[in-house]
């Protein structure tokens, strides 16, 4: 590491890893409240956003963001046309990018992938689907007016994470992101949960497509080939998607949840037949028709009278309910059992608390107050899991505007990248380099292997390597004003500062990039740093020396006020 790079890194590390001092004022100023809303409900404020929220008011801005369908987003839609793959179906994607491991997907594709080199080339082609869905995600985060929609799409994708390279996910992830996560991001949680459970991407990622049983109810003991319970999705449905690890379930509940969901599979991924529409399919011949009890509630045929069976309907909570026989039509009982399980879990008190905790962690602080979580969970239950109403409970809470929670959240690498590009007014020509740099910062899009998704707490993102990568990204934002994959007009941001006036250039960059949201300590440290000759006296055009505006701008984006939201 050369001297200049080392000094820049130490500067960034000192600020970003410094303790997050709380605001000691009794209340936030009006401007701080506006910045708080913009930082939490969007991927970072721009000057025009601050003007907009100041004009219409905080309440109106929140209501606007809660109803993205009413907002014209044609400018962003135009940018998305650069990525045609994100509008295609799984069938179309499979036809465009055949799997080299299954070249018999269609007769006309046979023989196209014959050797390792051809297979490597095929996988590079397949990865183009990840590049385009990632590019579309970046484009929306930077350009879309529907910022809360994008924040929630990011939140829910991490909550219901799938990994691009698992099984057949490459051909399924684009419809999953578009038709499942985005389509339900601000709707009812139970609709989102059911859409995820029946999505081909989740069915293959957590292996429920191979969750087979013996229809006689002897799922765990049948000797038939392929007739075996796969608990992966049943476990994560409870632990990660609904009630949470402390939700009171047992290993037997996991097994029974998996049994309820036997036969939930998909169609259209048969590599030995012509392509057909890819989608959810219930397969009654793979379903366990025996009695299942999950968290004290019955699914399947009614149990004989007993402490857990007496007076309980299928999957319906509460004592005294009239017993109901399962549907008797061909295969109907099995698929209905799964739907009943999803409905039951979606409104379970432990689910309400778990989802409320995660949302409060995203929008308030890493360790949200239990009293706030309880109130948000109550709203979740009172509205049958209405995501909009649950978010309003957070945004309207006193805690949301408390000074102790002002700018205490460390941005994830994706949030940092999007906020940098937004505030700098960067023109994105291609996203390949941005995706590569996100990988260097530790958050490659759609490549989180564990089903937990990427974490939303500071300790996950404060490593020294991640911070150096952030500074390098900030430098890259300003490296190519007139060429390259993303272009930022640094001269506009520096304003009318003379080429050799570092102080004026710094003041203008602080105003335009930080919206003057900077502490005196951070400002003084920046002023000291830009006195380094490697920044203040560099060769410019015409054999003169002056300020390296690109380095100054990168330093401005390294201060703690910009690392946090």
Core attributes:
two-stranded antiparallel ribbon, about 5% strand, about 575 residues, mainly alpha, disordered N terminus, two-stranded antiparallel sheet
Strand count, sense and barrel status of the largest sheet are: 2 strands, antiparallel
Radius of gyration: 26 Å
What is the count of DSSP helices, taking H or I runs of 4+ residues?
26
Number of strands: 8
Protein structure class = mainly alpha
Q: Let me know the average pLDDT.
A: 86
Overall description:
- The chain has helices at 3-16, 30-41, 47-56, 58-66, 74-80, 90-96, 116-143, 147-159, 173-181, 189-197, 200-205, 232-241, 251-260, 332-346, 349-363, 370-382, 387-395, 413-424, 432-440, 464-477, 490-494, 502-513, 520-529, 533-536, 549-556, 560-563, and strands at 264-267, 279-282, 292-294, 297-299, 427-428, 486-487, 538-539, 545-546.
- The protein has 565 residues and is mainly alpha-helical.
- It has three domains: 3-17 and 411-563, no CATH class; 68-184, no CATH class; 200-346, no CATH class.
- A hairpin with a 2-residue loop joins strand 3 and strand 4.
